[in-house]
User: Which sequence fits this backbone?
C-alpha cells in the first residue's frame, strides 16, 4: 500500500552536486511521519545520511553535515536530499525511509562519485 520511489541518482564528478527525491504514496499520513535517507556502499553496512521529523527537525551524519540538506514538502509528500561537494566516499545506493507504523523503504537509487 505504502510506496516510496526514489529518483535523482546518477554519476557525478567529485565536487559536484545531486538532488535526490523520494515520493511517498499510499495509505499513510505522511505529515506526522519521520522521513530519512540512508545509504549503503558495497561491502559496508547501511548508514543514516539524514533524517527529518514532522516538526522539521533534522539530523545529519557527521560525514555529510555541512554538505547536505534534507527537506520535505507536506503537499507533494516528498522528501529531498540536496548533496553538494560530493566525494568518492559518497558513492552508494541511497534509500528513502519513512517511519509510520513500521519502517518503509524505497528500492534505492545509485549515486556514483568518480572522475
Assistant:
Amino acid at each position: 500500500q505504502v510506496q516510496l520511489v526514489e529518483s535523482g541518482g546518477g554519476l557525478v564528478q567529485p565536487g559536484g552536486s545531486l538532488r535526490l527525491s523520494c515520493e511517498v504514496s499510499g495509505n499513510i499520513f505522511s505529515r506526522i511521519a519521520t522521513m530519512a535517507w540512508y545509504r549503503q556502499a558495497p561491502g559496508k553496512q547501511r548508514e543514516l545520511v539524514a533524517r527529518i521529523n514532522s516538526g522539521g527537525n533534522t539530523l545529519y551524519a557527521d560525514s555529510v553535515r555541512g554538505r547536505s540538506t534534507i527537506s520535505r514538502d507536506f503537499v507533494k509528500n516528498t522528501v529531498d536530499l540536496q548533496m553538494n561537494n560530493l566525494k568518492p566516499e559518497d558513492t552508494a545506493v541511497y534509500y528513502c525511509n519513512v517511519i509510520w507504523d513500521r519502517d518503509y523503504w524505497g528500492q534505492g537509487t545509485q549515486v556514483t562519485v568518480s572522475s
